């Protein structure tokens, strides 16, 4: 039952509906149903936020260490350096996401040019 | 302010005006950053073997970017549908408290429930931040209309961004193509750190970053769930222990 398990055109859409839409909107609808009856600082919510953060961070780690496409051909050391530089710049400059993104991209692109990167 | 009178009769032009004000409010710095993240998402979806219609469908139906990135991560690592749905659900529980805090801001005695359920679909970090910032300046009975304009515009704009970037991504030179694929990780690396409210969030991020690639090697197919559950629970325990010792949280 993976994303490309069946050849039918509708299977990926069903996968996205059940694995994506249902899995997110169910929580949104629950929020409407609960209305104002939930506090935001309870211990259970701290745990929920920690699980969600670790999960997304795991995807991010994989996207840097095991990327796909052209980024996979870039040296691992350069990917790690670009990410670290972007994150460092973000922390240094008023936690600006824009500064972090621009720094990481600048380091990556400069590095790729320096090694004569051609995607292979 | 006369406009705050809940019983004052509303004309169709009032609804149109506040809807448009919501549309205009979506043009903002957070929305620009979000668009750059969707540029990265388009490249990511293409590399994961997802077609253009599927990527646009996913953008409209799922909307929350972390959920979509987890869904694509699950697709790349060959997860089955139940495992993928479970991982996405786990990454999206945080939508509930966001909606819970937003609904009382928009609701009046006359608001129909289906309107709130429909509008809740637009809730993701950026539209929520913008709404919480602007809604207090909107007359109470116009807030649902306003949020419809704001949230709807963000969704539709980014569906267009994904369409255009997906089409462009295939013809980029290798260096730009690599740079495009770096956008998503660096966007989340920074924005996730900034959105953490307590130390648990920062620990969870560090644990997840290390455990994700580790479990990718040892537990392919279940790497995201394992890293999320173990990393998240460990972060929570560290948070509790530090709190117990009276350390700053």
Features:
heterodimer; A: 120 residues; mainly alpha; 5 helices; 72% helix; flat; B: mainly alpha; 2 domains; 0% strand
Can you walk through the features of this model?
- The complex is a heterodimer of chains A (120) and B (249).
- Chain A is mainly α.
- In chain A, 72% of the residues lie in helices and 0% in strands.
- Chain A is built from 5 helices and no strands.
- Chain A has helices spanning 11-34, 43-65, 70-73, 76-92, 97-114.
- Chain A is flat, with a radius of gyration of 20 Å.
- The termini of chain B are far apart.
- The model of chain B has no long low-confidence stretch (mean pLDDT 90).
- In chain B, helix 4 packs antiparallel against helix 5.
- Chain B folds into 2 domains: 2-195, no CATH class; 197-249, no CATH class.
Mass-distribution shape of chain B: globular
- Uncertain runs of chain B are none
Domain module count of chain A: 3
* Sheet/helix structural class of chain B: mainly alpha
Query: Helix-strand pattern of chain B, N to C?
Result: HHHHHHHHHHHH
Helix vs. strand class of chain A: mainly alpha
Helix content of chain A: over 70%
SSE topology sketch:
The complex is a heterodimer of chains A (120) and B (249).
Chain A: H1 11-34, H2 43-65, H3 70-73, H4 76-92, H5 97-114
Chain B: H1 12-25, H2 29-47, H3 52-62, H4 65-76, H5 81-92, H6 95-106, H7 113-120, H8 125-134, H9 143-169, H10 174-195, H11 199-218, H12 223-244
Question: What's the short version?
Answer:
Chain A has 120 residues and is mainly alpha-helical. Chain A has helices spanning 11-34, 43-65, 70-73, 76-92, 97-114. Chain A has 3 domains: 9-37; 39-69; 74-114.
């Amino acid at each position: 039952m993976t994303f490309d398990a069946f050849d039918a055109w509708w299977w990926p859409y069903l996968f996205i509906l059940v694995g994506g839409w249902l899995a997110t909107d169910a929580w949104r609808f629950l929020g409407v149903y609960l209305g104002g009856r939930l506090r935001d600082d309870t211990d259970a919510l701290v745990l929920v936020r920690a699980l969600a953060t670790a999960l997304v961070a795991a995807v991010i780690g994989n996207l840097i260490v095991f990327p796909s496409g052209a980024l996979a051909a870039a040296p691992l050391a350069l990917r790690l350096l670009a990410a670290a530089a972007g994150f460092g710049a973000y922390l240094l400059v008023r936690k600006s996401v824009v500064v972090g993104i621009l720094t990481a991209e600048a380091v990556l692109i400069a590095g790729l040019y320096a090694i004569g990167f051609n995607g292979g | 302010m006369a406009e705050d009178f809940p019983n004052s009769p509303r004309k169709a032009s009032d609804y149109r005006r506040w809807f448009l004000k919501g549309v205009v409010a979506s043009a903002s710095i957070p929305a620009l950053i979000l668009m750059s993240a969707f540029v990265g998402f388009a490249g990511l979806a293409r590399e994961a073997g997802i077609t253009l219609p599927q990527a646009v469908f996913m953008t409209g139906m799922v909307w929350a970017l972390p959920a979509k990135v987890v869904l694509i991560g699950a697709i790349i690592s060959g997860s089955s549908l139940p495992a993928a749905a479970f991982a996405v659900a786990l990454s999206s529980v945080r939508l509930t408290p966001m909606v819970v805090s937003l609904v009382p801001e928009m609701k009046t005695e006359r608001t129909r429930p289906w309107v709130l359920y429909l509008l809740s679909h637009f809730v993701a970090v950026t539209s929520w931040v913008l709404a919480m910032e602007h809604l207090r300046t909107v007359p109470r009975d116009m807030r649902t209309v306003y949020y419809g304009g704001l949230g709807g515009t963000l969704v539709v704009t980014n569906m267009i961004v994904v369409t255009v970037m997906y089409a462009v991504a295939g013809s980029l030179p290798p260096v730009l193509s690599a740079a495009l694929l770096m956008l998503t990780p660096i966007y989340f690396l920074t924005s996730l750190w900034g959105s953490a409210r307590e130390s648990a969030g920062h620990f969870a991020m560090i644990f997840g970053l290390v455990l994700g690639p580790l479990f990718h090697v040892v537990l392919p197919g279940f790497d995201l769930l394992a890293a999320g559950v173990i990393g998240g629970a460990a972060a929570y325990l560290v948070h509790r222990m530090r709190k117990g010792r009276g350390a700053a949280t």
